[in-house]
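tool_call predict_complex ligand=1,3-dihydroxyacetonephosphate
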Amino acid sequence: MAAAESLRAPIILSLAESHFEFFDFELLIAAVERAAERSTVPVAIHLDHGSSLESAVRAINLGCTGVMVDASSHPLDENIARTREVVEMARGCGVPVEGELGYVPGVEGEDAARHPGELVYTTVEEAQRYVAETGVDFLAVSIGTVHGRMQGEPQLDFQRLADIDHALSDVPLVIHGGTGLSEAQYRRLIENGVAKINYYTALADAAGQRILANGREHPTAGYTTQVNGVADAIQNEAERCIELWGSADRADKLLKKCRPWQPVEHLIVYNVQGLDEAGVTRIMADGRRILGTIPGVRRVFTGAAVGNESSYRYSWLVRFCDAAVIDSYRDDPRHRDFADNRFRPYADGRISIDYKQIVYGSEKS
Ligand code: 13P
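tool_result ok
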């Protein structure tokens, strides 16, 4: 974020599902979201290499504004089917989806030469079919990069990239395994339709090298000394990439075209007939559990009026990540079942209104 701010660059912050064993996704994304909110450059928060529909729903509900579904290790038909169900769900949340076709082997943060599995190139014909049948908003292609630390300069198939870009002219392309390419290679990627480069290993290595240097210099020092300068090391490397990839000074122009992330509060105030207090509490608990897992639902607040003056005794406040969720939530079978069978029979005469947040970002200069 510091690099993006200092160079006025739009930025995508990705959290990779394969890293969830190293941090608590729910806790970290709250901090990432706060960093995005207080930033003055456009920021997207993206789930990287999501493995399933469930993980995509969870990511959206926790705050991701874009998701990747990576079913690229499956045969084409299955990749298409798995990707399509994520796209259908995410459309209902106003969230774009990245798919991957072909296989970019390797593990972020490891030596690329030790990668498991063989590289599978994306073909033009499969890319056309995949995009047409899944409706993905951006496509990760395999043209010779490998996740992880490179030795030597990889061979990239630029002709293949140009052909895919030509065939899919309105779909931005994504390159995974961005670490370790030459400056000329980055330029040719971007000239041939690449709009997003995934870059992890070099940033992690910048952090690791700083820690090792601190350890050599202060072998007995504690944690804060050992990690001193890590943020600066990552920022320097991120700034190098932002300058090189041409996204510096693009934030303000892009902001004019951006649709801000705009949550909606679905508010219901109601009274209850034919239920005691314990029954009301039970319905609220069921509602929080059931409605909270519907795609695009960020939070379910259930409330009781403070004091006796209000003519409405209880409330629901259901936060949607986007106005698109108003329709998809209404039609979701879990919501229909809960509303028709558990809630509405007891809550006659309720008021229900959807409010969009209109001051989002206005605190910024
Ligand atoms: P590198 O770690 O090789 O930069 O790749 C990152 C990546 O593609 C994450 O999805």
